[in-house]
Design brief:
This protein has 318 residues and is α/β, with parallel strands linked by helices. It is built from 12 helices and 8 strands. The strands form 2 sheets. The chain has a 6-stranded parallel beta sheet with strand order 3-2-1-6-7-8, sandwiched between helices. Strands 4-5 form a two-stranded antiparallel ribbon.
């Protein structure tokens, strides 16, 4: 039996070999684990969507050469300021039902189409100029404060208001830019805590309206010129400024700045903005609002009410 002793491993040798085998297995496990993890990481990287670079913080806090420019009608406020102003003047007997019917119809059309019609806007401006002719500027400013509370305060888009506040919080100036009378725009800007307003200027002599404009209405390309002039006076870098509007009529103004935004955009502006990768924000709700631009937050009842008012007044006039 002693001759067969070599077939039986000694305890010390068996233990040493076991330790060696265990260590070798452990080392191999570590290597294979690392290899498998590397392969999984490679597979994840191959299937994962490429990460977009993080957008820089905007607006930039403390950038004194940047400012923001906001269109008013259907961008900051639902509907057109001049129509709401007309309603307030009618309530104070500045004009007759015939003019109110026209204002009501234009406002109903604006709600339905969601875009500005040049002929309607011109007609509204002509009506407003004829109505205020001979009145003192101070009188209309005082009345404008009341009209804001009655017809405009509840029509401010909260989302757009938050955008404007972000610029203010960053230490930047924020201006309204609108075809509405500068007096009305200034009241709205002050009530919202904004810096000021660019608007259409009506001629006055010794504080009394003459019924004429100084130049042309601040509309379309005129807005861009106003922003350009203000930027030069304020020492602003337009490439660092932002502009916000709902209308394709304001493409000249939006194209002037480095940060253009389409807010509640009409069809033409939405298409233009998407083609140029401009940022979009739509604070309206409902599929219909998205398609045709109805300020849905105002409700179908408001739309029907405006149209019904126009029809009823038309019937009474007849």
């Amino acid at each position: 039996m002693a001759a067969l002793g070599w077939l039986t491993p000694r305890r010390r040798s068996a233990t040493a070999r076991s330790v060696l085998a265990g260590e070798a297995a452990a080392e191999a496990a570590r290597k294979t684990s690392q290899q498998l993890e590397a392969e999984r990481e490679t597979a994840r990287a191959a299937t994962a969507l490429p990460e977009k670079p993080a957008e820089p913080e905007f607006p930039v806090v403390g950038d004194s050469e940047a400012a923001a420019f906001f269109d008013l009608d259907n961008t900051v406020m639902q509907g057109a300021a001049i129509f709401h102003f007309g309603r307030g003047l009618y309530k104070r007997k500045f004009f007759q039902r015939r003019e109110l019917a026209r204002f009501a119809w234009q406002q109903a059309w604006f709600r339905l189409a969601g875009v500005e019609d040049p002929e309607h806007m011109q007609d509204a401006r002509d009506s407003a100029l004829s109505i205020v002719k001979g009145h003192r500027v101070s009188e209309l400013m005082s009345i404008g404060e009341e009209i804001y509370d009655e017809y405009m305060a509840d029509r401010i888009w909260p989302g757009t208001r938050a955008l404007a506040q972000a610029h203010l919080d960053a230490g930047q100036k924020v201006w309204l830019v609108t075809a509405a009378p500068v007096e009305t725009a200034t009241i709205i800007a002050r009530r919202l805590g904004l810096t000021g307003a660019l608007g259409t200027v009506a001629e006055s002599v010794d504080g009394v309206y003459t019924g004429k404009l100084v130049g042309e209405p601040l509309h379309g390309p005129a807005k861009a010129e106003a922003v350009r002039a203000l930027a030069a006076a304020e020492g602003l870098d337009l490439n660092r400024c932002a502009a916000y509007s709902d209308s394709h009529n304001d493409i000249p103004m939006l194209s002037l700045v480095g940060h253009p935004y389409a807010i509640n955009p009409d069809t033409k502006l939405r298409k233009h903005a998407k083609a140029r990768d401009w940022r979009l924000r739509d604070y309206r709700t409902g599929r219909k609002a998205a398609k045709v631009g109805i300020p849905a937050a105002a409700g179908v009842g408001a739309l029907a009410g405006g149209t019904a008012a126009a029809v009823a007044l038309h019937r009474r006039r007849r």
